[in-house]
Design goal:
19% of the residues lie in helices and 43% in strands. Strands 1, 2, 3, 4, 5, 6, 7, 8 and 9 form a 9-stranded antiparallel sheet that branches. By secondary structure, it is of the alpha+beta class. The two termini are 27 Å apart. The chain has helices at residues 13-22, 59-63, 98-105, 135-138; strands at residues 9-11, 26-32, 35-41, 43-46, 49-54, 68-77, 82-94, 119-123, 127-133. It is elongated, with a radius of gyration of 17 Å. The relative contact order is 0.24.
Length: 143
């Protein structure tokens, strides 16, 4: 595996997709009133798209229509000081096609919030990157 200038392992696309698919929760990064905003969301990967389910009138639904967003998942172990992070960047689109919506409603994507969430946002990553803090780089660090 290649490493970046900081000693972090650079993950390839296949491993990024594997980690992205396995993560239970992610964060979407978008612009709200000209300021950066981050919101935790549950999601599912469908093909090479990240799918988020939200309510039609939500702020997230409004601000992501046709904009470029970042989506991030990660996992860290504070005891071993290891972890990884995957970032996907691409356009966010509200899904409106009835056949596509019917297929997305069958995905195992259930909101953690107890209200109607029938708006689907599809993020198609144009940039996918990942980094891992390998155990070997943390072994000599003071505790």
């Amino acid at each position: 595996m290649p490493f970046d200038h900081s000693g972090l392992e650079i993950l390839g696309d296949a491993e990024c997709w594997t980690l992205l698919t396995a993560a239970p929760l992610g964060r979407i990064v978008f612009t709200d009133r000209a300021l950066p905003a981050i919101q935790p969301v549950n999601f599912v990967v469908s093909g090479e798209d990240v799918i988020i389910r939200t309510s039609p009138g939500s702020k997230l639904a409004a601000v992501t229509r046709g904009t470029i967003v970042a989506f991030e998942v990660d996992d860290f172990d504070t005891t071993t000081r290891t972890g990884w992070s995957v970032v996907a960047v691409g356009p966010a689109r509200t899904v409106t096609d009835p056949q596509d919506l019917a297929a997305l409603k069958r995905l195992p994507l259930h909101s953690w919030v107890p209200n109607v969430r029938d708006n689907f946002i599809r993020i198609h990553p144009e940039i996918l990157s990942g980094r891992r803090i390998p155990a070997s780089t943390t072994a000599s660090l003071p505790v």
